[in-house]
C-alpha cells in the first residue's frame, strides 16, 4: 500500500507539472480580434508567445504543429516569430503531411537565404523531391521556388530538371515555377533546362503551358542567345493563342467570357520578346495579333488587359502599318473608357507611339485635349505631355490656344511644365516672329512666376531681332507694366525694352493716341514705382536702374545721346538660347551699349567708359594691344586692355587717390604683379571627412582688399553632392562670394571644390567669419555651422 501510495503521489505531482493543452489557432484569432486597444493586443501576444516558448523547450511534439501555425499568424501581424525557425525544420522532417505542410509554410515565411538555418533544409528538400506523394513533392518545389538560395539551387537543380519531365502535370507545373527561381539565382544553369522547357510548350494542360511560357520569358531576359533558340516555336505559340481565341466556353478556364486570359497575356508577352528586331518572327505573328485585336471583347476589364498587351506587342515588333493604326485606335477607344486606370494606360502608350506613328495619334487629338479637363491629376499631366508631343507646324496655332487655356486654369503644380512646353513648341514651330512674341508675352502675363530661367533672355533676343516690331513691342510691354508689375519676368523684359527703345514712346511714335500728355515723366514715374515696390525682386530693380541710365541718353532732354547706343543684335546659342552675360543677377546689357571697336577709336572708348564714372574727362593713353571683352565674363573685364593714367603719363603726383574700381579685380595671370602673397594658409574646418582650407592673397593695388580661396575636399568613401557655402562677416567688413567650381566633392580626396571670396576691410579690424555648409552625403542632407576666428594677422594688417 505504501508503494502504491508513493506512486500515486508522484503521479499527482507529475500531472500538476504537465503543461496544459495550448489554445487553438481559431481561439487565438478570436481573442486578438476582441482586443480593444493595441496594448491589450500586445499583452495577449506576449502571453501566448511565452506559452509557445515553454512548449518548445519541453519538446512537445503533440502540439508543435499548432504552435507553429499560431507563430505564423503572429508573424503576419508583424510580431517577432524568429524563435520558431528550428521548429519549422522539425516539422519538415516529420513523416506526417499535416506537419510538413505547416513546416514548409513556416519556412517560407520565417526563413530566408540570409540565415544559415535554411541550409539545414537541403537534405529534407532533396528527399521530398523524390517522395512518392505528389503533394509532398509540390510542397518542396514551392519552398525551393520561394526561398531557395544560390547554393541550394545548385544542389537541387538536377532534381528539378528531372521533375520537368514527370508524367504528372501537377508536378511539371510546380517544377517549371521552381526552375524560374533557379535561373534567377544561378543564370549559368539555364542551358540545363532548355530541352525540357521546349517540350513543355507542347503541353495541353493550361497550367503547365502557362508555367512553361513564364520560364521561357525568364530565360530570354537572362540570355539574349535564347531568343534564336525559341524563335523556332513561334508558330507553335501562335497556334496555342489561336486555339484560346477560337475555343468555345470552358468552365475550367473561363473568366468573364474569355478563355484563360492569364495564359493569353503571357503568350503575348513572349511573342513580343521573340518578335522584337526580327522580321520573320514578326511576320508570323501579324495575323494572330490582328485577330486578337478584333475578336476580344472590350466590355470587361479582362478583355482590356489582353488588348493592352496586344498593343504593346504591336508597338515592339516589326509589325505592318495597318496593324499599328489598329493598335492606336484601340488606345483611342481606351480614352473613352470610364475607368481612370485604362485612360492613364492609353495616354502613356500613345506618348510612346507618337514619335513613330504621329499621324495615327493625331486622329485622336480632340479626345486627348478633352483629357486636360479630367479630375484626375495624373491623367491631366499625361494628357499635357501628349498634347505637346502632338504639336507640329500645321496645328501649332490651335494647340497653343488649347495649352494657353489650360495654363490659365490649371493647378499651380502644372504651370512650370506647361509654360516650358509652350516655350519649346513656340520656338520650334512659330509661324512668324510676331506670333512667337505674342505667345511668350501671354505666358509671362499668365504664369510669369513659374517660367524657366532662360525665358527672359529668350524673349529679349526675339524682340531685338524683330526690327519692324520694336515700336509695337515696347508700347505693348509698357502698357502691361502700367497695369500689373507682379509678374517679374515680364517686368524685366519690359524694362529692358524701355531702356533700349524708350525713344519710341515719345509723342508721334505711338501706333495709337498716347495715353498721357508727358510720356517722359510718365515713363520715369512707372520706373520709380517699380524700384520702390515691394513686389520687385533684386534683379528687377537692377533692370530698372539700367533702364533709367539708358533713358538718360534716349529721351529728348539727354545731353549725351551717343554715350549708350542701342545694343547690336544678340547672337543666339543653339544650346542655351541667347548668349548673354549675367553679373550679380542682371543681364549685361551695358556690354552691348558700347560702340564696336571698328566704329570708334580706342581713345573714344576710354573717354566714354570714364564718362560713366565722372563728368570729367581725364587723360588716358591708348594701349598697344586691345583685348575684346569675352561674352559671359565679368563686367569688370570691360576694363581689360585700357591703360588708365598713372603718375608718369598724366603728370599727377604719387598722392593721387586710386579710382573706385581699383582692387576689385580678382587675381589672374595678367595682374599677378598686383597681388601680394605670403600669407599662410589655414584649415577652417576638418570634421566628418569634410576639410575646408583657406589660402589668402592680398591686392597691392588696394591693400584693403583680401582674396580668400576656399578649397573643400572629401576623405570619405562617398561623394558629397549639392555642396553650398554661405558665409557672414561683421558689419565693418564687406564680403562677396564668387561662384564655386562645382557642387560635388569627390570621395577619397580625388578632387576638390574651390570658391573665391572677396573681403574688403577698410578699417583694418581683425577678421572673423561664420560659415554654413549644406550638402548631401549618403543620401542624407547635412547642415554644418562653423566659426573661423584664427585668421593670420597678415590678413588684416
Automatic annotation (TrEMBL):
<keyword id="KW-0472">Membrane</keyword>
<keyword id="KW-0813">Transport</keyword>
<dbReference type="InterPro" id="IPR011989">
    <property type="entry name" value="ARM-like"/>
</dbReference>
<dbReference type="InterPro" id="IPR013041">
    <property type="entry name" value="Clathrin_app_Ig-like_sf"/>
</dbReference>
<dbReference type="InterPro" id="IPR008152">
    <property type="entry name" value="Clathrin_a/b/g-adaptin_app_Ig"/>
</dbReference>
<dbReference type="GO" id="GO:0016192">
    <property type="term" value="P:vesicle-mediated transport"/>
</dbReference>
<keyword id="KW-0333">Golgi apparatus</keyword>
<dbReference type="InterPro" id="IPR002553">
    <property type="entry name" value="Clathrin/coatomer_adapt-like_N"/>
</dbReference>
<dbReference type="Pfam" id="PF01602">
    <property type="entry name" value="Adaptin_N"/>
</dbReference>
<dbReference type="GO" id="GO:0030121">
    <property type="term" value="C:AP-1 adaptor complex"/>
</dbReference>
<protein>
    <recommendedName>
        <fullName>AP-1 complex subunit gamma</fullName>
    </recommendedName>
</protein>
<keyword id="KW-0653">Protein transport</keyword>
<dbReference type="Pfam" id="PF02883">
    <property type="entry name" value="Alpha_adaptinC2"/>
</dbReference>
<dbReference type="InterPro" id="IPR050840">
    <property type="entry name" value="Adaptor_Complx_Large_Subunit"/>
</dbReference>
<feature type="domain" description="GAE">
    <location>
        <begin position="677"/>
        <end position="792"/>
    </location>
</feature>
<dbReference type="InterPro" id="IPR017107">
    <property type="entry name" value="AP1_complex_gsu"/>
</dbReference>
<dbReference type="InterPro" id="IPR016024">
    <property type="entry name" value="ARM-type_fold"/>
</dbReference>
<keyword id="KW-0968">Cytoplasmic vesicle</keyword>
<comment type="similarity">
    <text>Belongs to the adaptor complexes large subunit family.</text>
</comment>
<dbReference type="GO" id="GO:0006886">
    <property type="term" value="P:intracellular protein transport"/>
</dbReference>
<dbReference type="InterPro" id="IPR008153">
    <property type="entry name" value="GAE_dom"/>
</dbReference>
Amino acid at each position: 500500500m505504501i508503494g502504491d501510495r508513493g506512486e500515486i503521489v508522484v503521479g499527482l505531482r507529475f500531472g500538476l507539472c504537465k503543461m496544459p493543452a495550448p489554445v487553438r489557432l481559431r481561439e487565438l484569432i478570436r481573442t486578438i480580434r476582441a482586443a480593444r486597444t493595441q496594448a491589450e493586443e500586445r499583452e495577449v501576444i506576449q502571453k501566448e508567445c511565452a506559452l509557445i516558448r515553454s512548449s518548445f523547450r519541453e519538446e512537445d511534439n503533440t502540439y508543435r504543429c499548432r504552435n507553429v501555425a499560431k507563430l505564423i499568424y503572429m508573424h503576419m501581424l508583424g510580431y517577432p516569430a524568429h524563435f520558431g525557425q528550428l521548429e519549422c525544420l522539425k516539422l519538415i522532417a516529420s513523416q506526417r503531411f499535416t506537419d510538413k505542410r505547416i513546416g514548409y509554410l513556416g519556412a517560407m515565411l520565417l526563413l530566408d537565404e540570409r540565415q544559415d538555418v535554411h541550409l539545414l533544409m537541403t537534405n529534407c528538400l532533396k528527399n521530398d523531391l523524390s517522395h512518392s506523394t505528389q503533394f509532398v513533392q509540390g510542397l518542396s518545389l514551392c519552398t525551393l521556388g520561394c526561398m531557395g538560395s544560390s547554393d541550394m539551387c545548385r544542389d537541387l537543380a538536377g532534381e528539378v530538371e528531372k521533375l520537368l519531365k514527370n508524367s504528372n502535370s501537377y508536378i511539371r507545373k510546380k517544377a517549371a515555377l521552381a526552375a524560374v527561381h533557379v535561373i534567377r539565382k544561378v543564370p549559368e544553369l539555364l542551358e540545363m533546362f532548355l530541352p525540357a522547357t521546349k517540350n513543355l510548350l507542347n503541353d495541353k494542360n493550361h497550367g503547365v503551358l502557362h508555367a512553361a511560357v513564364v520560364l521561357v520569358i525568364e530565360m530570354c531576359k537572362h540570355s539574349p542567345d535564347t531568343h534564336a533558340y525559341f524563335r523556332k516555336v513561334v508558330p507553335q505559340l501562335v497556334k496555342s493563342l489561336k486555339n484560346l481565341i477560337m475555343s468555345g466556353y470552358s468552365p475550367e478556364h473561363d473568366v468573364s467570357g474569355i478563355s484563360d486570359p492569364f495564359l493569353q497575356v503571357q503568350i503575348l508577352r513572349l511573342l513580343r520578346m521573340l518578335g522584337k528586331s526580327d522580321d520573320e518572327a514578326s511576320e508570323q505573328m501579324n495575323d494572330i495579333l490582328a485577330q486578337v485585336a478584333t475578336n476580344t471583347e472590350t466590355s470587361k476589364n479582362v478583355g482590356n488587359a489582353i488588348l493592352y498587351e496586344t498593343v504593346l506587342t504591336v508597338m515592339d515588333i516589326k509589325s505592318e502599318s495597318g496593324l499599328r493604326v489598329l493598335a492606336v485606335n484601340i488606345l483611342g477607344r481606351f480614352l473613352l473608357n470610364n475607368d481612370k486606370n485604362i485612360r492613364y494606360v492609353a495616354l502613356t502608350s500613345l506618348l510612346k507611339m507618337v514619335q513613330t506613328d504621329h499621324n495615327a495619334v493625331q486622329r485622336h487629338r480632340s479626345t486627348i485635349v478633352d483629357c486636360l479637363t479630367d479630375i484626375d491629376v495624373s491623367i491631366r499631366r499625361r494628357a499635357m505631355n501628349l498634347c505637346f508631343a502632338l504639336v507640329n507646324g500645321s496645328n501649332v496655332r490651335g494647340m497653343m490656344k488649347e495649352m494657353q487655356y489650360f495654363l490659365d486654369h490649371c493647378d499651380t503644380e502644372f504651370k512650370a511644365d506647361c509654360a516650358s512646353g509652350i516655350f519649346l513648341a513656340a520656338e520650334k514651330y512659330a509661324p512668324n516672329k510676331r506670333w512667337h512674341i505674342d505667345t511668350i508675352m501671354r505666358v509671362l502675363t499668365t504664369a510669369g512666376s513659374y517660367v524657366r530661367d532662360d525665358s527672359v533672355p529668350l524673349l529679349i533676343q526675339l524682340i531685338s531681332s524683330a526690327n519692324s516690331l520694336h515700336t509695337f513691342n515696347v508700347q505693348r510691354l509698357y502698357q502691361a507694366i502700367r497695369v500689373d508689375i507682379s509678374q517679374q519676368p515680364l517686368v524685366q523684359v519690359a524694362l529692358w525694352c524701355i531702356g533700349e527703345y524708350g525713344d519710341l514712346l515719345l509723342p508721334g511714335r505711338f501706333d495709337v493716341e498716347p495715353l498721357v500728355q508727358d510720356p517722359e515723366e510718365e515713363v520715369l514715374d512707372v520706373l520709380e514705382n517699380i524700384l520702390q515696390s515691394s513686389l520687385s525682386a533684386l534683379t528687377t530693380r537692377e533692370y530698372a536702374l539700367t533702364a533709367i541710365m539708358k533713358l538718360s541718353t534716349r529721351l529728348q532732354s539727354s545731353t549725351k545721346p551717343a554715350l549708350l547706343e542701342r545694343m547690336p543684335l544678340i547672337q543666339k546659342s543653339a544650346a542655351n538660347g541667347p548668349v548673354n552675360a549675367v553679373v550679380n543677377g542682371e543681364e549685361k546689357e551695358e556690354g552691348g551699349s558700347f560702340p564696336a571697336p571698328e566704329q570708334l577709336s580706342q581713345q573714344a572708348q576710354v573717354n566714354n567708359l570714364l564718362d560713366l564714372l565722372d563728368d570729367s574727362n581725364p587723360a588716358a593713353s591708348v594701349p598697344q594691344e586691345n583685348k575684346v571683352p569675352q561674352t559671359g565674363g565679368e563686367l569688370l573685364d570691360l576694363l581689360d586692355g585700357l591703360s588708365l593714367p598713372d603718375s608718369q603719363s598724366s603728370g599727377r603726383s604719387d598722392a593721387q587717390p586710386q579710382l573706385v574700381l581699383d582692387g576689385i579685380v580678382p587675381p589672374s595671370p595678367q595682374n599677378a604683379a598686383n597681388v601680394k602673397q605670403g600669407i599662410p594658409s589655414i584649415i577652417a574646418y576638418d570634421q566628418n571627412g569634410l576639410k575646408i582650407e583657406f589660402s589668402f592673397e592680398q591686392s597691392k593695388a588696394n591693400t584693403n582688399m583680401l582674396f580668400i580661396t576656399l578649397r573643400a575636399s572629401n576623405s570619405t568613401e562617398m561623394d558629397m553632392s549639392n555642396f553650398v557655402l554661405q558665409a557672414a562677416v561683421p558689419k565693418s567688413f564687406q564680403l562677396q562670394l564668387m561662384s564655386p567650381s562645382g557642387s560635388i566633392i569627390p570621395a577619397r580626396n580625388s578632387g576638390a571644390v574651390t570658391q573665391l571670396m572677396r573681403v574688403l576691410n577698410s578699417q583694418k579690424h581683425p577678421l572673423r567669419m561664420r560659415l554654413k555648409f549644406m550638402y548631401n552625403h549618403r543620401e542624407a542632407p547635412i547642415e554644418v555651422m562653423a566659426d573661423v576666428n584664427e585668421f593670420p594677422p597678415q590678413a588684416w594688417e
